[in-house]
Amino acid sequence: MKIRYVNGKRIYYAFMAGAREVTQQRVHLNKINVFPVADGDTGSNLVSTLNHILQSVTPTVSINETFQSIADASLAGARGNSGIIFAQFINGVASEVKQHQVMTAQSFGQTLVKSVPYAYESMANPVEGTMLTVIKTWAEAFHDAGKKSNDFVEILNHSLEQARDSLMKTPEKLEILKRSKVVDSGAQGFVHFLEGITNMIQSGNVRQYLQQQFVQKDDYQLTETITPEEVNFRYCTEGMIKGSRVSLNDIKKKLMELGDSVIVAGNENLCRFHFHTNDPDQVFLDMRRFGLITEQKVDDMVRQQDALFKRKSDIALVTDSIADLPANFIDEMQVYRIPLQVMVEGTPFLDQVTLTTPYLFQLLNQVEEYPTSSQPPIKRVTETLSFLLQHYEKVLMLSVSGQNSGTWQTFRQAAKELDQDGERVAVIDTRKNSGAEGLLVMKAAEAIEEGKSLEEVVELVNKWIPLTHIYVSVATFEYMVRGGRVSPMKGKLGKWLNLKPIVSLDENGKGIAFGSAFSQKANTHKIMGIVEKHHQEAAVERYCVVHADAAEKAKEYARELEKITGKPPVYITEISPIVALNAGRGAVAVAMVQSSPAK
Fold this sequence. Notes:
Helix 3 runs parallel beside helix 5 (80-97) and helix 18 crosses helix 19 (407-418). Helices cover 51% and strands 18% of the residues. The longest helix has 19 residues, at 185-203. By secondary structure, the chain is an alpha+beta fold.
């Protein structure tokens, strides 16, 4: 079988075959992922990138039109270091294809060589021994072979062997690969992509090959031999920016000031960036000046390494960003947190990750439209759960009250998709929020650390839920009115009367107005009375104080509560931006768990 030319549809089928092989090798690629950080997600990121291309593109006969469509989809769906390098190489190909309807092997080889610099230029500091090196080797080998032959099959076989040889030499170029006794995972992924294309052609029947069932390969046990290097920049951060004139170089320079592993791909209308930083919240606020941020993604590489190398238990504990907990506890107990989204003038910020409460209050003075909130996208929850199920035996997911958010349903949907028998994942609607949800997560983490089974922890959490309460002292009606929770007329009346509402949750997790007072001092006194009544009915085992830019008031609450309970709070922390949207600046809340059922 000889192939003398390629058109748009043949290119699309090639991508299908390449994606198929990368998908089969996903787990293997994750296991050998050590550079730039051993975070175990290269395979998953490449699969996500390729699947987005296949789902988004409708091929035509024109190779120019199809490659342009693939390039746009690759930028929109690119994930991870290798995914974005791959996307920028494809964008280079699309730019160099020009107006060709079909291409010969010679013209295609010339296009590949011209496209390599696009991939190199996307990186602030290009590193040899990675996917870059293998792409360059393959493109040059394809181009050289194309001078002697016009048969794509022959050229592909030859250039694939050169790519494999380049792959095997990656440990010679990167010390971390040599020390870990692996090849570069991104480069290996690219070789698998080429192998998929070659296997399809050699099968002789494209349609039949692509329709064959395949089993994901998981016969590569290597993670235990890898010693991860220290993570200097904790968060693998990605975003997409749309604008009329996006400056890729300016974005690259700005990102280099804030972290490392900088990759910027795209064109003047669309930019996809990836880098590692310790300050993802600052990054996205800075990026707003370059255009509309349409997507944000942040992975905690420390927590990923916990799953890979330092698991405290066989049970992973997952919650959402509404659960207000101190950062040191989350790190110590290896709690995995999935952020909800805060939509600010078209930009989906990640609650407690790319948007913190102090920055939220700054933004509220700058925006005309009041921000809204939404549950995590199902794809993000599924990706997180899939990763955890690769490394833990069981997963426990505790969500914010299902009465107040669709997060619980999203968690359940992801669990049902990945654990159809319901044996490995348990999802609990805590019917709480903020500090109350945080206290339940804390107690669940402690039970897991004690060695209790998933079933035992689930039983305990369900027992603790009715013993857990939260009372929020709201300083002003302003934020409730702006967020649509209270009508403007009631807000004006409350302001005129100087009313200070107390908000709580009923037994089903629905928000309720629990009471009010005519001054902040009276409000505090009333909440202390509520806590004292609970404590008399059944001793308060533990409590926390959370606040919205009201640290001194929170300390005052803690002093009064210690007089009542005889113990200090287990923590004082700031509430999440989503809770702050409704409670408003100056709000303070006390959450507690009673030691036995209330009478």
